[in-house]
Amino acid sequence: MDTVVAAPRALLGRTITGPACVRISAGRIVEVIQGAPPGNAEVLTDGLLTPGLVDVQVNGAVGVDFAEVDPEGMAAVARALPPTGVTRFLPTLITAPVPVAVRQAHAVLAAAAALPEHAGAKPLGVHLEGPFLSPHRAGVHDPALMVAPGPAELDLLLCDEVLRRALRMVTLAPERPGGMEAVRRLAAAGVLVAVGHSDATGEQTRAAAEAGARMVTHLFNAQRPLGHREPGVPGVALVDDRFTLGLIADLAHVGPDVCRLVFNAAGNRVALVTDAVAAAGMPPGRYQLGGADVLLTEDGVPRSPEGTIAGSALTLDRAVRNIVSVGVDVAAALAAATVIPADAIGEPTLGRLEPGAVADLVWWDEDLRPRKVWIDGRVAYDSTRPLDTALPPLPATPPTPLNTATVSLAAGQ
Question: Residue limits of the Amidohydrolase-related domain (predicted)?
Fold first, then answer.
């Protein structure tokens, strides 16, 4: 039997309109109707209906680091994301030796394959953020583990049949020896190539786009900065329409005024990401990111013991609210968390309310907080009901106690 969900307002395309209703059958949207709902509809009395959110950079959450994930940990993350509006996510692995990264990727894929039916948000494959990065823009990645992307290293990724099918995105520094050829080879294999942790000049960034790069990982962070004569990575990214711009909108990685500037310059190409780490959704304490310590203090920003920002504790719904708070239009902010990231990773049935699309929906209240979430047409979260007790529980292990006196806030990503 079909399900019909009606709302006074809905995000259709990149515009908020309404009233509108969505007819769902077998986990897909089969019809979108504007106007008064039919008599059999579930009528949402207020708020806003949108597609499910798509996060293409998630290192972990709720105490789970994807570099050391098991099926129970993956299930905990999948369960934790729908209350934040996220219905699909791309597990991300940071810099490690290539054979180690391959092993970690297989563990991520095995844990994803073991998810129970209707376990929560669904993984979309793997994003490798490294090891083909610049030691000059390392952030919290270990420079000693970074390598140039030679043919042998790429063979380990692309000749592994299981990984090749699931490798959705690779972040690299195109200025490294072999970098441009790596961009061409990965792009030809259908992998989204992102420029990140890069000391590339503007000219080199543009050359990467010519070679097939189509995204910038966490714009402004861990890359050659914007200058008025040398545009660096951000300057070219803001004016080159071939790039989708990943933006961590916790207002700590990138300040409010610059977030607004990014949307003013290229709002139709911004993909909000969390870059969430194991500390996301957890109390202050000591967590892991790729095997290294990450310290979450009361300010809510994960950092290395030296004080460098280490991913985020952001949720994607909060990123949307943050962007709206700096003056960006609600529809533009929501598009940046739905259709834009979905299109960037080549998922034309995600992030939109239209016939043929996957029936991932979010009902937001007037304060832009998720009230109800559907995944494949089935309710995955309802703020008025307790979480499904049949799902794996969230981790109960407390974080390692944090001695905040060890944290220096002088450094930054």
Answer: 49-379
At residue 247, φ and ψ (nearest 5 deg) are -135, 125
The tokens for 168 are 């959705």
Rounded Cα–Cα distance for residues 313 and 331 (Å): 24
Q: Which of 90, 34, 81 is nearest to 62 (CA)?
A: 81
Mean pLDDT of 378-394: 70
What three-state secondary structure class fits 39? coil
Q: How far apart are the first and last CA of the chain?
A: 51
Give the pLDDT score at 10: 98
pLDDT of residue 408: 32
Q: What is the pLDDT of residues 210-237, one digit of tens each?
A: 999 999 999 999 999 999 999 999 999 9
Q: How confident is the model at residue 404 (pLDDT cuts 50, 70, 90)?
A: very low
CA angle 3, 13, 8 (to 5 degrees): 50
- Among 55, 275, 343, 360, the active-site one is 275
Read off φ and ψ for residue 166, nearest 5 degrees. Answer: -100, -10
Cα angle 160, 165, 169; round to 5: 100
Average pLDDT over residues 117-144: 97
Which CATH superfamily groups domain 3-49+355-382? Urease, subunit C, domain 1 (2.30.40.10)
Tokens, residue 8: 């006074």
Which residue, among 278, 55, 90, 238, has the nearest Cα to 169 in the 3D structure? 90
What's residue 210's pLDDT? Answer: 98
**Would you call 142 a catalytic residue per the annotation?**
no
Structure tokens at 124: 């979309």
Burial pattern 216-239, b for ≥16 Cβ within 10 A else e, equals bbbbbbbbbebeeeebbbbbbbbe
Chain region(s) in the chain for CATH 2.30.40.10: 3-49+355-382
CA distance 257 to 259: 5
Convert the pLDDT of each residue in 32-85 to its tens digit: 999 988 888 999 999 999 999 999 999 999 999 999 999 999 999 999 999 999
The CATH T-level fold of domain 53-344 is TIM Barrel (3.20.20)
**Rounded Cα distance, 75 and 64, in Å:** 10
H helix intervals, 230-377: 232-239, 256-266, 316-325, 330-335, 339-344
Say if residue 19's pLDDT is above 50: yes
Coil, strand or helix: which one is 151? helix
Task: Give the separation between CA 308 and CA 230, rounded to whole angstroms.
Answer: 25
Q: What is the pLDDT, as a whole number, of residue 397?
A: 46
